[in-house]
Amino acid sequence: MKPQLSPSVLSANFARLQEDIKNAEKGGADRFHLDVMDGHFVPNISFGPMIVRTMKTITRLPLDVHLMISDPDKYIPEFVSAGAEFVIPHIEAPYDIYRSVQLIVELGAKAGVALNPGTPIERVEPLLDKIDMVIIMSVCPGFGGQKFQPQALKRVKVLRSMLDRLKPAVHIAVDGGVKRENIAEIHASGADILLAGSAVFETQDVEKTVRELKHLVEKP
């Protein structure tokens, strides 16, 4: 599948959010990624549906909401209503993941699931009839700016092989530590959505950085 660059809004400067988002768009961003954290499932708190609504006033690009929260079913309707295209809960949280992805689909959004570094890839298989994206975490979730864990490359390859057999259209996204120096290798391993936060927004020229990162994954 054609690679897509998805800047992670968690790393944006919220004092100039519109400027950062517009500059990422100008550079060729394909979609935006929003990390929702509740301080329970992960040891950090980020934002809720209001930021999705705000983003919808700034950009027409797809918004993917990654739910790092303990009770996603309680909030899924709000995020879908706010304008999320994809809603992606974690497979490890203490709830019925199949029920959650079914709820997302019933509400009219697309569903995905996210897997922490230690979670077996095989846990995705029973959900393939409902989902259209899998996020492979290449760091422990909860904070931006962490270092990429190379074992994630093997996990992506295993997942890509499974999906090619069972449901090839499912997207694979990689989240955590995606940088200029590894983005091409991550794409080559089988990921088609590259999530980059600090690598995009903590630079002097967001537009230029996005353009350069896209070139790295799109060049022959």
Would you kindly provide a written description of the structure presented here, covering whatever features stand out?
By secondary structure, the chain is of the alpha/beta class. It has a single domain (4-218), classed as Aldolase class I (TIM Barrel), CATH 3.20.20. Helix content is 37%, strand content 19%. The chain has 8 helices and 8 strands; from the N terminus they run βαβαβαβαββαβαβαα. The chain has helices at 17-27, 49-58, 72-82, 97-106, 151-166, 183-188, 198-201, 206-218, and strands at residues 4-7, 32-37, 63-68, 86-89, 110-115, 131-137, 171-175, 193-196. An 8-stranded parallel β-sheet has the order 1-8-7-6-5-4-3-2. The longest helix is centred in the last third of the chain and has 16 residues, at 151-166. It is globular. The model has no long low-confidence stretch (mean pLDDT 93).
Summarize the structure.
The protein is of the alpha/beta class and 220 residues long. The protein has helices at residues 17-27, 49-58, 72-82, 97-106, 151-166, 183-188, 198-201, 206-218; strands at 4-7, 32-37, 63-68, 86-89, 110-115, 131-137, 171-175, 193-196.
Keywords:
globular; alpha/beta; TIM Barrel; 220 residues; 8 strands; single chain; eight-stranded parallel sheet
